[in-house]
């Protein structure tokens, strides 16, 4: 159990409560290197329950992601796999945990964060899709080292994404048609992706 990281993000009192809940439900917490496809997950394999969470998340994203996954644990303990992953039961459990551990207090630094928290509480975010406003606020607390959202670049701007160079094209709903310079082929990249501007 990575208690130091939990204390860093939640404070000692909250961290102790979270660790106690995981231990009482025989669930292992694993801190993982950054993954491109997920921030965290909950799984049960051969009766072994585990939650993974990426180690590169800022405090606010870490808090929401971990509570999100622990809500899956709580839902599993109460219903096993008989309910929808992000159905009413999960949403209720998510709110229970946010209240139980007083997570709202972590989001009192600014009015933006307080509003983000309240929106998340009222209508919890599931994994599918990206909410641009939420992403923009949370990402403002990341150490991005000169990166910007693709949506913020002008048309035809060159940029680097996952070690490849592209030119920004037209918006197609939530994705942007981009041309890879190396092979002149078109690819769609989500408009909320973080990229390194060039030129």
The average pLDDT value, as a whole number, equals 92
Count of DSSP-assigned helices: 6
> Which strand order spans the largest sheet, edge to edge or round the barrel?
4-9-5-6-7-8
pLDDT < 50 stretches: none
| Strand percentage | 15-25%
Oligomer: single chain
Which outline best applies? elongated
Structure overview:
The protein is of the alpha+beta class. It has two domains: 3-139; 148-197, SH3 type barrels. Helices cover 38% and strands 25% of the residues. The chain contains six helices and nine strands. The strands form two sheets. A six-stranded antiparallel β-sheet has the order 4-9-5-6-7-8, with no helix packed on it. A three-stranded mixed β-sheet has the order 1-3-2. α1 (3-10) packs across α2 and α3 packs across α4 (88-100). The longest helix is centred in the middle third of the chain and has 21 residues, at 59-79. It is elongated and about 55 Å long. The N and C termini lie far apart (45 Å). The model has no long low-confidence stretch (mean pLDDT 92).
Brief write-up:
The chain is of the alpha+beta class. The chain has helices at 3-10, 12-24, 59-79, 88-100, 111-122, 132-139; strands at 27-32, 40-45, 48-54, 148-149, 158-161, 164-172, 175-180, 186-190, 194-197. A hairpin with a 2-residue loop joins strand 5 (158-161) and strand 6.
For the structure shown, list the relevant keywords:
SH3 type barrels, 9 strands, three-stranded mixed beta sheet, 199 residues, alpha+beta, six-stranded antiparallel beta sheet, 6 helices, 38% helix
């Amino acid at each position: 159990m990575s208690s130091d990281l939990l204390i860093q993000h939640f404070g000692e009192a909250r961290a102790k409560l979270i660790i106690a809940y995981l231990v009482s439900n025989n669930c292992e917490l694993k801190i993982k290197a950054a993954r491109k496809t997920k921030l965290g997950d909950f799984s049960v394999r051969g009766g072994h329950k585990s939650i993974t969470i990426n180690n590169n998340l800022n405090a606010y994203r870490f808090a929401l992601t971990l509570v999100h996954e622990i809500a899956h644990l709580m839902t599993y303990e109460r219903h096993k796999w008989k309910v929808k992953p992000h159905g009413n039961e999960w949403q209720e459990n998510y709110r229970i945990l946010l209240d139980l551990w007083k997570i709202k207090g972590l989001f009192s630094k600014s009015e933006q964060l307080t509003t983000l928290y309240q929106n998340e509480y009222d209508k919890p975010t599931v994994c599918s899709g990206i909410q641009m406003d939420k992403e923009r606020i949370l990402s403002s607390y990341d150490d991005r080292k000169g990166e910007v959202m693709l949506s913020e670049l002008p048309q035809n701007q060159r940029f680097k994404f996952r070690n490849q160079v592209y030119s920004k094209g037209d918006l197609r709903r939530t994705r942007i048609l981009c041309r890879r310079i190396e092979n002149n082929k078109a690819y769609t990249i989500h408009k909320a992706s973080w990229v390194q501007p060039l030129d």
